[in-house]
Structures are given as C-alpha cells and as structure tokens.
Amino acid sequence: MAKKSTSKYTVGQISAALDAIAPLSLAQSWDNVGLLVGNQSAKCRRILLCIDLITPVLNEAIANKCEFIISYHPPIFQPVAKLLADSTDTDAIVHRAIANGIAVYSPHTALDAAEGGTNDVIAGLCKLTDVEPFEFIANDNCQYKIVTFVPPAQIDMVASAMFDAGAGQIGEYQQCSYRIRGEGTFFGTQGTHPQLGKKGRLERVAETRIEMVCPDFCLPEAIAALHQSHPYEEPAFDIYPLQPEPTAGIGRVGILPPKTTLGSLAKTLQKATQSKIMTIVGPDKTKIRRAAVCVGAAGRLPLEKNRPADCDVIVTGEIRHHDALTILRNQKTAIALGHWESERPVLKSLAQRLSASPIGITTIISKRDKGPFDKL
C-alpha cells in the first residue's frame, strides 16, 4: 500500500513522528531503537516498512527510491566494530544503505509496548475485550513536590517566583498549586530578625500552606526562587520525591469471545496472519476464556508475570521446547504464530498511522520482506 505525496520531510521530522507513535522511552533497556542510520537534516519523500532489513528489502527500497526504511528489528543491535561492504552479516546491508543515502529507523520493543502497536494489533485479531498490559514499566520523568508556608499577603509573590523558575506544571497546565490556610508558630532567639512578631517570645501567625510539583532539572532554581521571594528570614519548606506513574509495557491480556477454543482461535489467527508455520501447545478443543498476547520470542515470559497468570492461552511468535512443557505443566495452552508472522501485521497499521500523521508522507509496505522459516 502507498499514499502518494510530493511533500519532503527531514529524517528528523519523520523520526519525531515515529517517536510520537511509539515513544522510545517505552523500549526495553536491552534494545537498540530509534534512528540507527541517517542524517537528521536529509530530505525524504518515501518510506519503506519491513520487519527485517534483508538484502531483497534493501533492493526494493532502492528500486522504489525510498530514502527512509522503518525496520521493526534493528539491523544494528550490538556495538559496531566494522562496516564492510563484502561482509556476510548485516553490516554489509547497513553499509549499502549509507552508500545510497537511506536512513534506517527501528521501533522494535517501543512499538511492542505502545498503544496500537504490535501486541495491540494481535490482540485485535484475537478479538480481545477488556484489554490491558501485563507489564508496566517505570517512568523516568522524576518529579518532586515542594511544600512551603507563607503569610497570606505574600503567597502570590512566592508562588509566582516559583512558577517562573519552572515549578507548578502538570501536563499542559501551568501555575498549578494547592493552598490551605493554617497557623504557624515560632520562637525567635536573640540572633534572629523575624519579619512578623518579635524575637524572644512564642509567636502564632496565620500562614498558607502551598504545594506544587517540580521536575528534577529545575528543582535548584525553584528552591532558590522560594528563598529569594519568601518574606521570612528562615522559610520552612519540604521536598518530597514523587513516584512517577508507570506506563504500559509489552504484552496484553484480555477476554476472548464466548465459546472460544484453542483450535478456533488458532484458525482465526492463521487466516489473519497467513502463517505457514503456526503451532499450538495443548489440545485444540480446549475451551479458553482469557488470553495473554506477546509477539516475538515471548516463550515463558507470560508465566513469569503476575497479570497474565490466570490466562488460559499464550499467543506469541515462538516457544522453545522446554517452555512448551512448562506451559502444559501449568495447565495452560499456547499458540506460536512464528516470530516474523506475529510481528508483520503491525506494518499495515503503522503505515496508516504515518499517512494520517501531519507528515503525510508516502509509505510502502515491503513485498520482499520474508520470514526465515517456511513449510515444506
């Protein structure tokens, strides 16, 4: 499929559009995702999408005058020591892509975790409802909450200074704070110079408690602004580290349609994915109600997570022999679509989303992309 366009966008703009669809922060820590090859300022008119960047796919990209390849699997995974044109490894393909001015981008596990990504596409083919991730990952956006206590007459002055320093922003909302009236006490010793009351006696003063969030990168500036704007000689304040809200990780769990059996689900998926190498683990007439979906080489991963523990079937790409035995011992079933076959369906969805995005660039799904296994 292709959406025709004469518009030119830079490699950087296309990469940003892909990051909006599948944020790189969602990728697994061991993965190598994002722009792997290319010049951020180079112009592009066509994108080729594939699962694996193999030689026939690169030939196809060159023939179609594509300047950008989205390869789901990263052709560069380990640190690169050499890029040799006559190599039998993927470095020869990368070398040729560079020689032809073609950028290469890999979303891999970021697309697995992203909403509408590889696992959501297979969950849709399974007709799952009540879908949720079976894994959550920690968010790296570290924030703090600053709490201080200010006389009511100066509260807006202190708040404004902290807002200007970067505190008090929640999403697209700015100058966010919470305020509550109360009473503060202090006893100033002889070396103090209190702004309210007198030293040498216990004072009770009306104060407003104000609190606001602050990202870690501007915390020093926000505290400095508090000190500079606060009327007290020694302002009291607290800093609380905040646990960020976890984001959806790889894998999905959900409810299958009523009366689904292992065999009926396998036939549905085989037809939808055109897999020639699909296998099942367990009797085909087994009734299944809840499914765990994790594309690629998930193996026994769903068995190691809490959320999919009560699932009746694991839908994945490939399963090792001993993992299949473990699945049976746990009285579960499984469907192995084939590694490539479980991931390929996302390309159509990704192409549509790119075409609908602001860049609206021509997208071509590779016809030469092919899994390494076949049926006799």
3D architecture notes:
The structure is a single chain. With 376 residues, the chain is of the alpha/beta class. The protein has three domains: 9-107 and 345-365, Udp-n-acetylmuramoylalanyl-d-glutamate--2,6- Diaminopimelate Ligase, Chain: A, domain 1; 118-137 and 249-337, NIF3 (NGG1p interacting factor 3)-like (Udp-n-acetylmuramoylalanyl-d-glutamate--2,6- Diaminopimelate Ligase, Chain: A, domain 1), CATH 3.40.1390.30; 143-242, Alpha-Beta Plaits (2-Layer Sandwich). The chain has eleven helices and 19 strands. It has helices at residues 11-21, 55-63, 90-99, 108-113, 118-125, 155-164, 219-229, 262-273, 321-329, 339-343, 346-356, and strands at residues 9-10, 34-37, 43-44, 46-50, 68-71, 103-106, 129-133, 136-137, 143-150, 178-187, 202-215, 237-242, 247-248, 252-255, 279-281, 290-294, 313-316, 333-336, 362-365. The strands form five sheets. A six-stranded mixed β-sheet has the order 7-14-16-17-18-15, sandwiched between helices. Residues 1-6 have low confidence and may be disordered.
